[in-house]
Amino acid sequence: MAYKQITILDSTLRDGAQGGGISFSVQDKLYIVQALDGLGVSYIEAGNPGSNPKDLEFFEEVKKIPLQNARIAAFGSTRRKDISCAEDANLQSLLVAGTETVVIFGKTWDFQVTEILHASLEENLAMIFDTVRFLREEGRKVIYDAEHFFDAYIGNAEYAMRTLEAAAEGGAEVLCLCETKGGMLPLDVRNMTEAVVRRFGGSVQVGIHTHNDCGLAVANSLLAVEGGALHVQGTILGFGERTGNANLSSIIPDLELKMKCRCLPEGKLCDLTSVCRRIAEISNITMDTGMPYVGTSAFAHKAGMHIDAVTKNPAAYEHVDPGTVGNDRVFLMSEVAGRSTILEKIHRFDPSVTKSSQIVGDIVNRMKELEHDGYQFEGAEGSFELLVRKSMGKYQPFFKLHYYKTIGEKPSLDNNLCSFAQLKIEVDGQLEVTAGEGDGPVHALDVALRKALERFYPAVSQIRLTDYKVRVLGSSSATASKVRVLIESTDGTDSWTTVGVSTDIMEASWLALVDSFEYKLIKDLERRYRSFM
Predict the structure, then answer these.
(1) Residue 386: pLDDT above 60?
(2) Which stretch of 252-266, 365-379, 452-466 has the lowest confidence by average pLDDT?
């Protein structure tokens, strides 16, 4: 089968860094470069070395990392008006960055040229041509980003084409059409991309860069490829300025699995989910569970009939095999799940168990009792798996609690830490007493438990709590009501959720916290066991 080759440029470190709440240290950026290179993207647009000292430091440090797949690209603008390229500090900083590839953006929309840049249309063409030619003469490969291309084409198609012509004549290898405001519709993007490909496709590669202001960034990118674009830009998790950029975690599998394109080196698509979760961890964000392909709910099933069908043939309700993108099928636990769901979990430990076996009924009944008491296993796969293990005798506690206590202090001693926890645990007859402080009692308890267990189980240092939710159950009982606590955790590779229920919020939190740590330790133990098999 003949595949169309698409080059992928990831702009997480440049355009993505403009998203609200996103701030990368130099070390963060280096970790993300390694993750994206491992995935196999073609280019990593890593920032503007002329904008701040941190980016300049990054470009020095990234030279020390041996890359297997990706090329680092520095980002900047065309020369300023009324000066030469040699005098332009921004262009000089691009040369200092030392990247083989440079991404340059320039004005395409006549409105932007005259009203924002306050330059003549002819001067803008000279700025584009001069900049690209200057960089080419300095030995750089140039990707030219045509800012506001689609608005420009609608307003003045002839001039928009002339700006592309100036970049092509200057020596640009890629003409990337930027849908900067995010307001275009897919068919319009395809038609305008086709017009550019007809004009320039024989000499340069045409690319697409879209934003998500209408929720159409992915669709617009795919339609541009349908129109002939061979270069796609975006960010790996879709975050960026305003409503974000085109989400490459959707675009890449869409192109590879649906449109007969090749975006990554062969065999790399199955790393997509783990790379996305790694980058989310570095970026300090929580991935939306409903993200296509890579979200924890992307292949989740709840209704009993759906689950029964999927266990017989996954194609009944899944558009692709989860494993192709490195994700997992999830059967959500609830009173509507049915025996097929329970059976799928049990088969991980004992494939001989059938739907009519007594243990299946016992687990279903126990689950329903707990859900009647306020537990919710639909969003707590980690706790449900521990329930199955306990019911089947496949569980051994990793530690025994003697006591814990928490203390709050107001006003706090400093601006952050206002709670303290102390606990005593026992592991194989050895006692450990530790204390922790945090910005709340649960945080302090987490710190204390982690400190106590690290002596016996160093892997707990990898665990990080990413989300904490509390819901009051039976509010008519006022302060005597039960509370349900859900804790989401990650070790940087996998994510899991655990649950605890009690009339005491700290006890509910403790139950969920213990399940979180034990789930991680059990998984690590099983991985080590399999490695010796």
Answers:
(1) yes
(2) 365-379
Rounded to whole angstroms, the Cα distance separating 238 from 217 reads 9
247 in Cβ contact with 8 (< 8 Å)? no
Question: Peptide bond before 314: cis, by omega within 30 degrees of 0?
Answer: no
Distance CA 327, CA 493 (A): 11
Residue 177 is which amino acid?
L
Q: Mean of the per-residue pLDDT values for the chain?
A: 87
Q: How many CB atoms lie within 10 A of CB 262?
A: 14
Q: Which amino acid makes up residue 228? A: G
**pTM metric for this prediction:** 0.71
- Residue 478: per-residue pLDDT: 47
- Contact indicator for 437, 419 with CB cutoff of 8 Å: yes
How many C-beta atoms lie closer than 10 Å to residue 100's C-beta? 11
Provide the CA 354 distance to its chain's centre, in angstroms: 38
User: Which residues are within 8 A (CB) of 368 and not within 5 positions of it... i.e. 6 or more apart?
Assistant: 335
Q: Does 335 have pLDDT greater than 60?
A: no
Q: Give the number of residues written for the chain.
A: 533
420-438 residue pLDDT tens: 899 999 999 999 999 988 8
For CA atoms 106, 108, 109, 114, give the dihedral sign: positive
C-alpha 518: how far from chain center: 26
Instruction: Give residue 451's identity as a one-letter amino acid code.
Output: K
398 and 427 Cβ atoms separated by less than 8 Å: yes
Exposure b/e, 210-229, CB count within 10 A at least 16 = b: bbbbbebbbbbbbbbbebbb
Q: Give the other-Cβ count within 10 Å of 48's Cβ.
A: 20
Instruction: Please give the Cα distance from 144 to 164 (Å, whole number).
Output: 8
- Alpha-carbon distance 247 to 10, whole Å? 10
Maximum Cα interatomic distance, the chain, rounded to a whole number of Å: 84
CA-to-CA distance for 400 and 464, rounded, in angstroms?
22
